[in-house]
Amino acid sequence: MNKQTSETRMDRHLSTFYLALLLLATVALGNAQTSLTVDSHDITVLLNTNETFVVFANELLPNDVQVTLGTDSEDHLSLDPSSFTYPAGSTQNQSVVITGRSAGYVKVIADSDAANKEIVKDVFVRVTVAKSRALIYTSIVFGWVYFVAWSVSFYPQIWINYRRKSVEGLNFDFLALNIVGFTLYSMFNCGLYFIEDLQAEYEVRHPLGVNPVMLNDVVFSLHAMFATCITILQCFFYQRAQQRVSFIAYGILAIFAVVVIVSAGLAGGSVIHWLDFLYYASYVKLTITIIKYVPQALMNYRRKSTSGWSIGNILLDFTGGTLSMLQMILNAHNYDDWVSIFGDPTKFGLGLFSVLFDIFFMLQHYVFYRHSRESSSSDLTTVTEAPNRSNESQSDVTTEKY
Which of 145, 164, 301, 372 has the highest CB neighbour number within 10 Å of its CB? Predict the structure, then answer.
């Protein structure tokens, strides 16, 4: 009996001990996950107007937390309150009022004592102080218009190839560079948009940043790749004369392939992160954007004609590129952010470079080779007359479309 009683007591003690351990583990886990956060990490406020964000706890705090809000620029906005104490065990929300003082981009960051730094690390807000709401809406409209213009720009070339049943006049080097460029662009966008490991690495490198890839970027790049593939398929089925991809283009593509393969190997061997591989792929895409129009411009020059090369493609690309640059200038003015253009001119420079090429193509089409275009057999309809049949009836005249 005594033995059974002793075993029962021991079992109870063990059960109590295990329960205590479980409770301690639960409390420790709860404390590790408890933190303060905000209802929105991105806010736009106009000059001399107010916007509010809310600080709240995702779990009850075990002790009071002193929160001090600071910014990376003191001139652009003011905060009320700039510091407060979030009480332990409270479910209340702390509202903070932002007042815009001067246009620009500002990061609001929370700080606390050493023991509570982890609790306030998610309290940050990216604030955009704008001069005009009308300019914000105008920028959005520009963005959608150039997105549509660039997306539609692939189809005039596809249509003219189908109508003529010929791809003569369309440079194959341009197509080869284009498909490689858009494939790499799609890899970059899909990687950062869909793969969580890459998103986590980007967040580690840019803790207060925002993912630069949005859904419309993914849709555009995949659609561009699809449309380019259709154009390439047309080259296999339609009349193409002696056109082919040049050895120079093969050499350039081989260099790009080496860069991509070596980068992928380094990423696979954990020498670099896969995010770095995507960056290297994007650099190749940027290089292709700079050089891809050169083969077509040279081909038009040598043929002294733009027949077979769709001017619709160029007009839409020019529209998209112009609106893209106008949007950047508009945003730079509205947010007083001229550094984004002149401090890091890559994006604006690439847009300007493409627009200048579009202007050159328009000059080739409408000015330099206008007469050649009007008389070219690659235009809509060619009427030919059989030899020694000049006195025949009009019904013997052949009308050929290609």
Answer: 164
